[in-house]
Amino acid sequence: MLDNLEETLFEKGFLHYFSNLRDTSTRHLLFLFLVSHICVVTNSGSNFDLNYIQLFKTLDSVRSKLQGSIAEVLKTVPGLPKDWLTLGRLCSPRVLFYFEQRPPFVEENLKPLQHLMEDQIYRLLRKCRVITNVCTNSLFAIPGNQEFVFFKPKQQDRLTFLLELLNDTFDIGAENSNDFREFLNQHIQLAQTEGFSDNVGRHVGPSIFVLPPARVWFDAAFKLYDFFSNTPADGSKGFQLLRSILDVEGQFSEARCLKVLPLALAAYQENLPSHYSSQYHESKKAQAKALLSSHGRGPAVQKFLTRLDVDCDRFWLHGRRMCEAPSISGNPCIQPVHRVLSDENNDNKLSVLPHVSGVRYVSACSCGRRQANREDPYDVKYANYDFYRLIEEDCCGRLRHIAFPIFKPSGDHFEAAQLKGVSKSLNFAKDVEKLITGTEDLSLGPDENEFPALSDHLSQAAAGADDHDESQTSLGKGDGAEPVEEENLMEMTGTHDMPTISTRDFSTTEYLPCMLHVHSPPGILPRYSSWSLVCLGSSSLYSHNAGLSDQPGFLTGSGFLLPWDIPVRLQHNESLQEGRRMNIGYSGKGKRGKQGQHEFTVKIFIGVEYECPRGHRFMSSSPGRVLKATGAGLVKDSAQLITQSDVPLYLPCPCPYSRGGKALIAQLMRLHIVTPKAAVHVTVDPKVRPAPPPCPEFITGFPEPVQLSPSSYWILRFPYVYEDENQIYTPPKEVTWNRAHGNQIHLQDCRISEKIMDDVKQGIQYAFQTQNTLTLAISGTGHAGMEAAICNLVERNDVVLIGINGIWGERAADMATRQGADVRTISKPAGENFSLDDIEAALAQHKPALLFLAQGESSTGVVQHIEGVGALCKTHGCLLLVDTVASLGGEPFYMDRWQVDVAYTGSQKVLGAPPGTAPISFGPRAVAKIAGRKTPISSFYFDMNWLGNYWGCDNQPRKYHHTAPISSIYALREALALLASEGLENSWKRHRQCRDRLISGLAKLNLEPLASNPAARLTCITAVQVPDGVDWKSVTSHAMSMQRVEIAGGLGPTAGRIWRIGLMGQNATEERVDRVLDVLAESIKGPTVMGRL
Description:
alpha+beta
């Protein structure tokens, strides 16, 4: 009942609740007048409350309206007396007035005062026509010749008076005369013998008085009660009248809101465009609601807000709604809601229009010699194929193109192949028992593809006179001053033609619905090629001194290709049968070496080109660096690093539009290759991975690397977007270019970081056994988790109850005090925990807003049982905060099942990760507490509104809050994966078995745990009492120096009294337990470490 009351008050407000409560109470009062012979009306003071008159008149009016409905109800009662059915009630009940206080300064005899009050009440009720001559026509009657007013003779509280009356009625206790009983009995005896006849005047008939059997009365009473309690307000005219009379505030509120509603709707419709987005719709609707809320009054505001919401939605949906279909890059369509040609099953009444986001980009064609506006793509075919086909018609359509493998149907009937989806990412599963299958699949070390990488393998093969020519000629490199390294040599062995594609092994009825990648099923090709390889012409088109003069959009100093000098070894065969002679063109100086060998250097020019959405283009000098030539056009870099390394797919563009530290994203779009005049085979076999594994590598589809013709200028265009069976890979939303570090460019790939963070969130949810949305890892140690929880939940003067049985309760109390809280404590000696009775008594006494308990008190080796505490806190309206730093993963913990509102832990204990992160989770009640704060959170760094957004807990675009400790986050993810791989129950069991084994071993050494109660002993940390006469420090020093085993001492009040042995995470093994026991036995018995006190 209290929960329903709280919910009603929160949703609809006090006025609405009070109006319903008053309506219900009045109905029940009318019910009493219908089933009673005598009604006693109490007055809290010694004066008659005039508000009763209005209430009596209201009840009488409603009774008259309900007469027919009441008769219908009474007809269903078997054995009902006819007079009761005719009158609708037993009689016209007598009303007696009881005054709880006697007037001041009066004599002991109250009879004269009672008679005077009777006369006044009678005249008042007659004048207001509450009572009439014929009592049948009135709500009630007043006796003409009997007392009906009683003043309480002595001051008593209401409960004592009623108890005395009850005791006297049933002859309990000593016999004492009760004036009120005598006053009441005279009316009861008359009702039992003669009945009431309270009509007055000369020409009145007899009164109706019914005294039914108890069975009939109860049957009728129950049915009437059900009628009065469950009939809705609009179910009867009588109840409608009752609501209208009582709910004056509601009527005023209705009238007020009816006037404001058209104004609010007009405010919504003011200055609207022809069609608009849902976001703009919600914004305008919020303005209209604010207007209605500010000018409306009373309980009807909520109902009219709902009505306004419906009216605004109806107006928007009927011809004003924008399509908002997202493009590949996430921009909404700005057309009116419509359908496209492919939507066969949609509403045919909608017009057929293409999706248009209004966003345009500038892109160059496949050859790069012409730029045009590109519409924001809605499908991969337009992005990778249609756009370039359109622009190539006026540019590079006549140039030499390499045809990539595509699907060629054998007839008119073909379809997309049905592919089984590949897992998009290795996420933590929601299933508690099978979070992940194994840690070997979840490596968190540095990945070579941390940047989406292009594996751009340029392989070279040399051409000789004949495939069987085995003679070799070795020449020096350059001018012959330096020796030639073997790995940098290319052997010229023959020539190859352009690749030919055989379609005999490929399907002619099914096509690949996505792009080709290394995991694509064999024998299936896409319908179009997302790649392009075009030859601009002769290699003489490029001048290294002038740079790329016919390529628009290049940033100043970046339109150059990188030279690559390659030593080549030519082999001659002196016994050529046909006496053929090789004519090989080359650059650089040659040198004749050994007999039959000749070595020389060829020069290849290579350019890795990036392009940003504004059409700015630049070359890269090395992975992650922008090429910048000198003012004289001199390029100091070579292509050595580019050809031997993977390069990032995305870079921040250094264009002048990058302001405020943010840059547009430039994407790798073209590879420029100028092949030498020498008969050197240059092959290209690009592979692109736009996201980390399991994203596949995308390929061109050629079975062998593509061989480029010599003395030519080739350009390989990469796809604009990448698509596999599961998803489309788009560029990251933001990159940060740190100008303070010179040429170092920091690229933030949002997909990578968000995926890792999402994995960590799911791992924390598994460890805590919760589905809480606000779950994350704080950048800091376990103390950071404690302080974050307290500063978010506690406001000044809040009562905070701290359970102290060790140092961590003391720390929590200190932090809460610094927040201005009213800190109360409950304490237990070191080695003991709190019972549910202890906690319930403290909650009832202090009525706190927050209760803090440490599940694992590491300073004393005590475990606090949490099960049942959450239910107690919820009953007492209190939040439960639990410290699990020393217990999570080693002790059972069910956050949702145990109704824990906030829990935090540390990464370095059972989880076994390096210190520096503090997993934390907030339940729904805690989130509501944060949202309802009256004051800002005292710490910006620990503000959960910011941190929740930073970790993606609020389904809003993420904002920068702080620089997270990346290595620690990766390590935490690996630790959670290991925990999930083992399984929580197995981990709990392993730690429990190791603790029990340790306790048994300590008993053999005559050592006792600090916690005498076995149920209070923590599994992860065991506190051992230092025996009398033993110097604890000498024992720990001996164990560390001689056996490399660290045993900790006590903390705070237990310092010098105990040893603390931690068996957590990877240390919780039987082997480690036995080793600790051996070392402890040796350290205690050794004569060098004994210290008699």
